[in-house]
Amino acid sequence: MRSLALLAVLLAAPALAQPAVPEPVDSVDPMIGTGGEGHTFPGATAPFGMVQLSPDTDTSCEIRACYGHAAGYRYEDPTIQGFSHTHFSGAGHSDFGDLLVMPQAGSAVKLEPGDPKQPGSGYRSRFDHAHEQARPGYYAVTLSDSGIKAELTAGTRVGVHRYRFPAGQDAHLLIDLRSSLYNYPGKILWSGLHLRPDGTLTGFRETRGWAPGRKLYFAMRFSAPLADHAFVDRDEAIPYKGFQGPGRGSDALAEKLGKALEARLDFGRLAAPLEVKVALSGVDEDGAVANLVAEPGDFDAIRASTRAEWAAALGAVELDGPAPIRTSVYTALYHSLLAPSVWSDADGRYRGPDDQVHRADGYTFRSTFSLWDTFRAEHPLLTLIQPERTSSDVVRSLVDSQRFSPDHILPVWQFAGRETWTMIGYHAAPVIADAYLAGVRGFDANAALDAMVASATYAPYGGLGEYMKRGYVPIDKEPEAASKTVEYAYDDWSIARMARALGREDVAARFEKRAGNWRNSFDAKSGWLRARLSTGAFRTPFDPTAINYGSDYTEGNAWQYSWFVPQDQAGLFRLLGGDAKTVAKLDAMFDYDNSKLDYSHAEDIAGLIGQYIHGNEPSHHVAYLYVYAGAPWRAQERLAQIVGTQYKPTPDGLAGNDDLGQMSAWLVFTSLGFYPVAPGSNEFVIGRPFLDRAVLNLPNGRRFTILADGLSPTNRYVSTVTLNGRPLERTYLRDSEIRAGGELRFTMGPVANRAWGAGKGARPYSLSTSGPR
Amino acid sequence: MRSLALLAVLLAAPALAQPAVPEPVDSVDPMIGTGGEGHTFPGATAPFGMVQLSPDTDTSCEIRACYGHAAGYRYEDPTIQGFSHTHFSGAGHSDFGDLLVMPQAGSAVKLEPGDPKQPGSGYRSRFDHAHEQARPGYYAVTLSDSGIKAELTAGTRVGVHRYRFPAGQDAHLLIDLRSSLYNYPGKILWSGLHLRPDGTLTGFRETRGWAPGRKLYFAMRFSAPLADHAFVDRDEAIPYKGFQGPGRGSDALAEKLGKALEARLDFGRLAAPLEVKVALSGVDEDGAVANLVAEPGDFDAIRASTRAEWAAALGAVELDGPAPIRTSVYTALYHSLLAPSVWSDADGRYRGPDDQVHRADGYTFRSTFSLWDTFRAEHPLLTLIQPERTSSDVVRSLVDSQRFSPDHILPVWQFAGRETWTMIGYHAAPVIADAYLAGVRGFDANAALDAMVASATYAPYGGLGEYMKRGYVPIDKEPEAASKTVEYAYDDWSIARMARALGREDVAARFEKRAGNWRNSFDAKSGWLRARLSTGAFRTPFDPTAINYGSDYTEGNAWQYSWFVPQDQAGLFRLLGGDAKTVAKLDAMFDYDNSKLDYSHAEDIAGLIGQYIHGNEPSHHVAYLYVYAGAPWRAQERLAQIVGTQYKPTPDGLAGNDDLGQMSAWLVFTSLGFYPVAPGSNEFVIGRPFLDRAVLNLPNGRRFTILADGLSPTNRYVSTVTLNGRPLERTYLRDSEIRAGGELRFTMGPVANRAWGAGKGARPYSLSTSGPR
Fold first, then answer.
1. Neighbours of B322 (CB within 10 A)
2. Model pTM?
């Protein structure tokens, strides 16, 4: 994959004219989201790379304070603790931060990170943003306490460090295997360090973090020979020491095992910068060595090839527009291309959901599936711009995960091959259905459907037994029952869609019926989605503004969740009393006076516009619902409001957790002018563009151009739309129309066109009105 | 291997006449050594089986009290806690006791073992020896508290339980993954349970016991369907709980991970006995399932095939003599055939010293190498009676272990593929040399020699750097320096022997020189082996009776260690002043008045005859040294003294730890009339027989018969010896003479024949007198 992508870039390069604007790769600012609550990381990674080599400014957080350091780095922190090799991009919960490396200069090597408030108290160092640089695949910083210049780059399974030590001082590296993100006491189960005769340092760590019993292996090679080393166990209370191996009286061992290990590596005085190349593996230490060998080249070579990979990946979309929006959208595209990340070794082996080693035969196994977030826009975006390279791998990874899952269901929130049981639903189903219906192939579709059905019928999971019996999840049996009922019903619809396409009519009929289960939890009288008891009654007391963990809703309330019927918004709107009442309720949501509400107890609630909460996913499709109600112009206003307030090309430029690309994919689609409200319908609902011009360079070689004539802050309304020169009266695009290539031309104006899209026939797919199409 | 051995037995069976005496397999009493300090286990195992399924009477021991329960079972204990699947036979230190299963009857299932002093306080049960039976491959006991009859059998990689529950009571099994031998706090690092859709229960446990970070996987199948189950985590202080998986509100999960797991399995009321078949694997859970499938058959089938395997293995030696000695020696032979045990899976994969999975190509990987003990007689015995089936596997396992060792040296004390760094020396060297020089093939001899040299020259190990520099290990740099110096010198000699045979003259010369290093630690003035300082002076104060851990000697003192020059006893005796002074010193050792000595602080010191300590290995060759001093008759007296006092056909019938067969192999050889004093010389020193008749059924199809005419308690002296009818004047046999088949005939008498073997030319190999032969 890697070499083919690179080749494409190299072949394309001579034909490109000298650009007037920065290259896409130079328009990305990885610092966006590293402040505020974006939880992105600024370090070096390749597209979908296994390695995310990035600075950690603090890992010593207490339980609640961990949240802010979910990606290790916070823009406002004054010190760097070290550089570790694994990070999530925008997760709410966290883990990772594996294999922390910190360079040290001089004679005294410090073994504790020290207090950030007391400079010099440990190995951490101050830094400032003036001496820091972040680009796709590259990060550099000067550590002010030691004067060491640190540079990081990464390939698919390798990270490379380059350290320039002050002249005349001894060079050391400290590796702290105790360091980790969300490092609750007892998280580190076991770890090991091995110095091989050829000077390769290998090791592993096993943690009981977010993913229980996760194993990670590594291999490191150095550009200069080791002068000396020490492997030390910092466990202060070891009940079981075992017998002493070779090296008695010295810490220069070939092997050290324990729960609190550090390695001190001494290189003496160096004439040239020290390069450290590190490979990871989820399989074993030999796998890490093989991954290291599979990506040859020094720091500059890896940096150059990864830059070329990023240029190729970002080249999927050409964007013209003012620099701020261009930076925001290219960075969003960059953030959309980080997960699901590579998890199999170069030889195809990977550690699966059963903690056993399997081999991905003819594909690359991916993990880091934040599916409750990413089924919405992140996966449809990948399916559109990377159908072969990514989505087919994704589907195969999901289906093989189901095969090897102890519960035999598709991933819910998986990373490093392991299930975490975070969030709700079986949203791998719409991801697979959307990909298959969009023409993605390369997997056994019937086996995939079987895996989807297995997940949707596994009684022990999330109240599914009750759901299948009653048609809704009862809140006295299962928490977050209201959210589960509507999300299951949507997932069920996606299964029916795929079954219909495969001619599996029995499955289709069964799941089409389940797709209507959202009605069983909807209180038509009050107009709210509500949790029902097993008696059938709605639970009281009921407060549509309440947000609590373990309540009737998942990270949200009735205001957000009452809109979640992507498969049948028309059916919902009829229950609400028709278009006008629906538009009024949508307006009430956006215009809600939230000044007296306090949601600070709920970590993921950020980016509020009334009761619309852009910082979390349940709201993400809501602005587009005006289109389903015949008022696209109102959607255009709301989208301007959201883009204008929730995204900025600055470190605090994301309104909430990026959630492995979902927040960013929303911006990519929205800036192009359309959005996948109902993945599986294979329709994109038209909003309004935010770029003067955009071109999708599709993998089939075709180009789909989007033009926004007259776009300006005042020209915020869509006056007319043409597709390939012909007026487009409907308010959605079919994915086949995009894939065919062509031109979507918006004419923007200062006045709302209330006629366009108002008719019933113009509206996007809804099960009860459109049926199969 | 298994099926071939079985076939051989089946083919042989019809030709056998009805025996007048019990079959060898019925002469074995596995209870021998389960009392006293033998540390053997009474449970079920196949020859060299991976599974040792045996009752544990107590696992809740404190650190020092653990010693007595090194094999889980003590004959004098009143209760059984459960049946676990892994045990060492006779180890001094311990570990194992994996996967404890306990049946329970009735409605209330207990989750804690309870206090042995308070019957009914937990799931442990009382039992009595009248309702207990132990045979090779079979164990049965009635649990008096519940009335459940438990039977155990085992194949190579499987154990099978059969439980008869009292009529009308519900049947349950409790699996306690917290239970372990030498269960220091913090030993259990991680564990898991998986219930597969087909009803197979799989799981794993990772421990930081004797072998750090040891992983064991298992798979279990049941003859009756599971009615219900619960996986529970008994960890009372879990800092990191993680998210909840499917099965919320119930413990009937598909998966449970944690550090203190138990499984409750409910079968309801059963009409037939419940059979539980369990396979182990060091690789992964799928490996355990495959191992389960690889050995088909129910309890009775496995029991029968393992009985046939034992009959074949024990058939290597036919023994005629009075029942007590016959029972002792057949049981000793049985104990000699337990380790090194199978560690690779049925498909050849195994977890090696680097904790990575490798594949044994064309052989079966063995582990449980107690080499400091077993190089003496256990391995020479296996090389004699099982050269292909065992010793070639053993050598390949040792050499591959060196290849994958983090330190790239041969095993020291290895089990489950992992190094424990217990005891001293590189005694894999004489094991390999002795096997190669005895004609064992099937391995790359030059690669094996390279591995031996690598081990003998690895400076960080056990003071070897100093040893290579000075010719002795200085006690101020390294503990147990006196013992290390002499043991290294012997190992060096074995390397020289093998190098000479391979034509590697440079290696041979170098190590023949090192073979003389024992002289550098020998105080010729006092006649003692003593520890020297790096200044060259002997360390003072010096007490030849002192036994302490970390002292100048390894589990011994100058009395025992001053005799350790197996490669050059003649050289030693010259230093001692000649034959007469040597015999006097040997007599002084045996006749020493030890009534005022207290060695109770040293765990392994048992079986004292003066300063001769038969319960520990450094003394094992000493009685035979009279032969080297020209006084075979005196050896004959001492051997009668030892056999008569140190072995009994009773539970307390072993004088000390059996040490994975070494104590037993000593008896097998000694009872036949000869002993391998210097493995690598390929000579057996003649003592005296203790059986009327014995036949070695050699694997090459030849028979070597040993007859003891006139043997009786008073006829304790060897009057004459003939080999194949010709008088044998020398006091040793060559291994080639045994392998050729033939007849060794002793004529026993009441009076010592002081002439036989007195001449210099009659004596066994010594480097300085015999040179290479």
1. 11
2. 0.94
